[in-house]
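TL;DR need structure tokens for one chain.
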Amino acid sequence: MNELPFTWELVSLKRVSEIQGGLTLGKVYEGPLIERPYLRVANVQDGHLNLQDVTTIEVPEEVAHRVELRPGDVLMTEGGDLDKLGRGTVWSGEIPNCLHQNHIFAIRCFKHKLLSAFLAYLTASRFGRDYFEATGKRTTNLASTNSTKVGLFPIPRPSIEEQRAICKYLDNKLNDVTQIVNGIEGQIATLTAYRKSLIHECVTGQRRIVEADINRVKTHG
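>> reply
TL;DR here they are.
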């Protein structure tokens, strides 16, 4: 990467966060159990969460406490498509007492050193993508990483105040982009509906093609 600004430092992720592993599914527990919701890999998508289908599991209370998610945790999947490997999504406590399986890492940033939102943006950057694509273990169709490689992810770290300013700037800019995209998608949907309606009207005789229409087509090629 290019030379960092003078006031920034380059540190490994494990120096500024705790990396929490998750539940091993299929394990048999003895004694009293409690039921808790938990996240699977399918729930952690590219830059967002899909919480429409969240299942539950019964585990001892001490196990649940050890792998419970907290607001601000950055979720990273252990495996998947190479271009999405290691991309972080911030957990905001959408489901109370929620756990996570062992194929999802929960990165708990030290709040005085690294903001969760800054880490999530960093993993989505070209710098972040290059790191995880270079270090990921590839198979035929998928790739995977591990806690060691996640922990060694180099973090170009400005002050907390500058991290906060960068995140606010990106939030505003990406919100503008989202509004533009939504507007364009709305126009595309309207034009697509018009296209279908026009075809239907013409081929069913509801709209008659007159000589003026034919001449207009000839004029415009």
